[in-house]
Amino acid sequence: MRKTLEAIFRQPFRLVLLLIVLPVLGLGTAFLLPRTYQSTATLWAMQRYQIIGATGSESNLLATPAETQATALGELLQSRTFALAVAKASSLPATLSAATQRDPLARDSALFDAIAKNVRVAPQGYNLFVITYVNRDPDVANQVVAAVIKNYGQQAQGFSIVEGQRFLDAYQTQLAKAQQDAAAAAKAEAAYIAAHATETVTELNNDPQYVLLHTQTQQAQSIVGDLQQKIATLSQDIATTSTGTDNLYQVLDVPAARAESRTKTLALAGGVSLGLALAACALYLMLVIRRDRSLYTAEELRRVTGLPVVLQLPHLSGKSVSRSVKSLSGADLPALSNGHR
């Protein structure tokens, strides 16, 4: 602690300079940066975002409609295909440098980062969710948000029904097989009845072989009925989802860009700069303390010289020590420790 305080008060001007210069530079840089514009669009979730599964429409019933749609759109924005489709539907590619535009891989990577990292989707209520994007060009910001809304409406439907379509294809294949089995079972039952034409209905119902054939026929027909019901449900859900985006969301406020407040930017820059200044001061003190070779205690002096301390005068001023040393010049002096080098 003594070394730390001595390091602070030995060169206070340097510490004060660090605490002043770095924040001033940070604020100046933030003030000189071009202004940015945030485009915002407000949407109303008409229903929960649903995936059509094996049993029909499936969704997270514990989440609000706005939360399910905001989550779905946020995940889509992290996909390269969706992000590039949004970027290329706006003027964002034209804002890249000429070198980046000439390199397809670098261009796509820059566009993906610009969309995936800067477009934000957040629920604001039970049905309300908001899409925001920040850019230095207000027109580009509005175009990006509009492209997000358009591509969300187009691609969300496809992702929603793709699993349902897969189950529908599987059920139709199973239905064809089940119908063949049902026809074969009915044919076997009819053949058995024809072979026992002399037996009455009561006699047939008491015949174990006929009962087995009749049970197999009923089971096969039940399987056919279940598959037909599943196919009808999935087909209806797919048809409903494919009708349009009107039943998914409605745009309440079209994208509108406004300049971001410089106060917020300056406050952020000032906070970051002040944090860096404090870190620089701490680093400076660490370096000063590590380079300090001063001796403050008798034990420190004994470890350095290997000699015992016979007498300690801790309160002598520097002038008194100087006169004492001159008066004892040429004599054998015991090791002294008075808080100085």
- Identify low-pLDDT runs: 330-341
**Any idea what the shape is?**
elongated
User: Rg to the nearest angstrom?
Assistant: 41 Å
- Approximate helicity band: 55-70%
Beta content comes to: 5-15%
Distinct helical segment count: 12
Class computed from helices, strands and strand pairing: alpha+beta
- Please trace the helix and strand order, writing H or E for each element: HHEEEHHHHEEHHHEHHH
The average pLDDT is: 79
Note the main sheet. 4 strands, antiparallel
Distance between the termini: 18 Å
With strands numbered from the N-terminus, the spatial order across the biggest sheet is: 4-5-1-6
Number of strands: 6
